[in-house]
Amino acid sequence: MAAMAHSDVAEVGAKARAALRYQVEGMDCPSCASKIETAVGRVRGAEDIRVNYGTQILAFRLDEATTPRAAVEDQVRKLGYGIAPVEAPRVVEGERGTAGSEVRSHVRQPWWKGAKTKLAAVLGGLTAAGFVASLAAPTLEHWAYLPAALLGLAFFGRKAIAAARAGSPFSIEMLMSIATVGAIAIGATSEAAVVVFLFTVGELLEGVAAGRARAGIEALGALVPRTALLVDGGTAREVPAASLKVGDLVLVRPGDRVSADGEVVEGESEVDESPVTGESAPVPKAEGASVFAGSINASGALQVRVTRPASDNTIARIIRMVDEAQEAKAPTARFIERFSAVYTPIAVAVAALVAVAPPLFLGADWGTWIYRGLALLLVACPCALVLSTPAAIASGLAVGTRRGLLVKGGGALETIGRVRTVAFDKTGTLTEGRPRVTDVLALTGSERTLLGLAAAVENGSSHPLGRAILERAAADGIPLRPAKDLHAIPGKAAEAVVTGKRVTVGSPSHAAEQAPLPADAERAVAEWEGQGKTVVVVSVDGAPTGLIAVRDEPRPDAAAGIRALDALGVEAVMLTGDNIRTGQAIAGALGLKVKAGLLPEDKLREIGALKEKAPVAMVGDGINDAPALAAASVGVAMGGGTDVALETADAAVLGSRVLDVAALVRLSRATLANIHQNVIIALGLKAVFLVTTVVGITGLWPAVLADTGATVLVTLNALRLLRWRPEARTPTEAHT
Q1: Among 444, 423, 435, which Cα is nearest to 466's?
Q2: Which position among 28, 248, 272, 425 bears the catalytic label?
């Protein structure tokens, strides 16, 4: 009974601690995200808080026995933001042909319908009316501008007080409110009105720009069609794509988007994968080929067996990884946030000192120096500086995702541009991962007979060499002969009885143990192995009858990819478990260094040695690459790789192109250059207006214009990254 009671308590506790996700309207900048994170962090029972201003998502776990979720929602609303719960799509059980997927989600309204747009319009109208009234009756200037100033103060003052109560006393709204109150107190109502109007316009532009950057990621979700043609009993009927299950068979007609990740089981076509991987040329697809949800079928009809549910297809995984990437703050962003947390209180203190010190100690005019202190307060606002890094990171992540370059976080995006060495695995990374028969030498009989015997022995084999021989026999139209007594000699050969004779397909050393190889066969073995090929000897009743050479060919763009890295000043090295002769042959053809015969632990050691000298990236696609991917400064998985490699890596090239590794480096460097430009813009404008404000050249409205202008310039500069192309250098990148 006690055990049961304990179990019940645990279950109740687990249920009470709910995982909640909310859409927060108006959270368009890092400062907004910081205020919300601080406010929710002060709520009892709230933990694991993740705020993503890029997607406007607030996620956290809440012990509802301590604090109801409604209390958290009220806390966010008091800060001046709209909040609505986000729930994952839920498929309604029942007849899949008629039931739809039920989704509750927050629909974003156009920016021109938002509260900030309405406020800006009203403030603009009131300020304009005040200007006209002051021209008509100059003596009423103070009162003419007062309505606009008081309306702005009411709106931002309420948010400032709520933020202070929630743990953020030095918010931009607080600085604005203090400056507005001070301006009204010293009779500068015209400037107070202009200040609140310009600040509102700046926040509005910031939201529009953030929405534009956000749209690039949101557009990914629209790639997957809402419906699919489910093949059932020889007929195809339309069902919600979200209802598809693993193992379902779907029909993809020419011109249709593929509705699910899957494998082609019937038909041939070309598929445009550019929306998913960035691959510009259509990719041929036939039986056994994999297809991505969201790609476009070009010509022939395909029947596709679903291999992943809708919640875990390629598009869903990309969106999930990008969301997580934007939640993870880059090192530069973390440093600037820490700096701003110290800088802002100091700036407020300096502004206060400027306002009171000269009148107190030098007998200067109080009104003049209070005015300058208030202007300095606005100049000191750190919004543009705080925004400089995350805005660039968000744009870099968005444009990379659209180009098939998936990076899991700002830290990884920063690191990739600093690497000085890229270590590549060979099989499936620099090579296609599909060995093919390159040479056939028949010592007796014909090549077709030789391939037929070898294919009969390898029939049903899962070994890469065996599959290569079977594919060549099938391509040449050679029928498979029946084989009996199939068995393998581990690491040496495979044997079977074919047409009454014992046929062996094995290594040259194993064949030589049975009977000496002819001189011409030995020469061929030496020549082919020198070219990086794996050679097998086909023997009949112990006598060698021919040789077959197999090689995993380099990817078509591998050599160009290595040259592109070299042009960027990045050294490439191949780490492979293959033999030294094969490794040297492949590396020599591609133009990079090689270390061969490595076990996974050896790769780990090599990565450690390279990492001691400078940041290093590891590129791989297999399970045996996972430790090295994790140990490198940044791990990059090839798109066709295993789930283990993709989950372990910090980035992925979805198109499986070696050239994309160089593109990742270039994207990172373009992003870093953009960050540096943003910091210079933010600090440079502040430095100029700091001087002009203290000496009395500029006043309140130029001060807020400097802050708003810097924020807008930083945002627009970050949005330039959305024009980045992997094929050509961009203006941003030219500064690297």
Answers
A1: 435
A2: 425
